[in-house]
Design goal:
Blueprint: H1 8-13, E1 60-62, E2 70-76, H2 80-91, E3 96-102, E4 110-117, H3 123-161
Antiparallel strand pairs: 1-2, 2-4, 3-4
Helix pairs in contact: 2-3
Family: Belongs to the archaeal Rpo11/eukaryotic RPB11/RPC19 RNA polymerase subunit family.
Subcellular location: Nucleus
GO molecular function, one term: protein dimerization activity
Length: 162
């Protein structure tokens, strides 16, 4: 069977397939197309409706009462996993004097983190550095995991061949 080139130009110029034509019953009468097939009652293509743009939700905000070197940040939809890891990484920064996190209430999906720094940096800069350092750490762990998994699978295959 010869292979067919189905590039977008060819598909657009090709006549409609049976799936794209209006449905016809065995008696020859027009049948309403199924809902969601992109055709109206006459079998003509419906206009494409662009999906509504979703509102971007700000997931991190600075809480009131903050200064340059001392600030509290609220994270939406985060919990102990990010809070404790971020606190640990931020406290490793020698420019940070204090860092702690809390979950204000178990029924709310919020996590607050408080950062106080020495005069050499800002609390916002310490948070940004902490998030970047945590991302870098996760990349290293992920890389080592996949490498070890690949080595394990390779050893397993050679053991099965013997």
């Amino acid at each position: 069977m010869p292979s067919q080139d189905t590039s977008m130009e060819d598909v657009a110029a090709a006549p409609p397939t049976s799936a794209q034509k209006p449905a016809v019953s065995m008696s020859g009468e027009n049948v309403e197309p199924m809902e969601g097939d992109g055709l109206d009652a006459n079998g003509e293509a419906l206009e494409a409706v662009e999906p509504e743009e979703e509102e971007v939700v700000q997931r991190v905000r600075i809480l009131p009462g903050s200064s340059e070197t001392a600030a509290s940040f609220e994270f939406l939809d985060e919990g102990h996993t990010l809070g404790n890891a971020l606190r640990y990484i931020i406290m490793k920064n020698p420019e940070v004097e204090f860092c702690a996190y809390s979950i204000p209430h178990p029924s709310e999906a919020k996590m607050n983190i408080r950062i106080q720094t020495y005069d050499t940096t800002t609390a916002t800069a310490a948070l940004e550095k902490g998030m970047q350092d945590l991302e870098d750490l996760c990349d290293v762990v992920s890389e080592k995991f996949w490498k070890a998994r690949d080595e394990f699978n390779a050893n397993k295959e050679t053991a099965m061949q013997e």
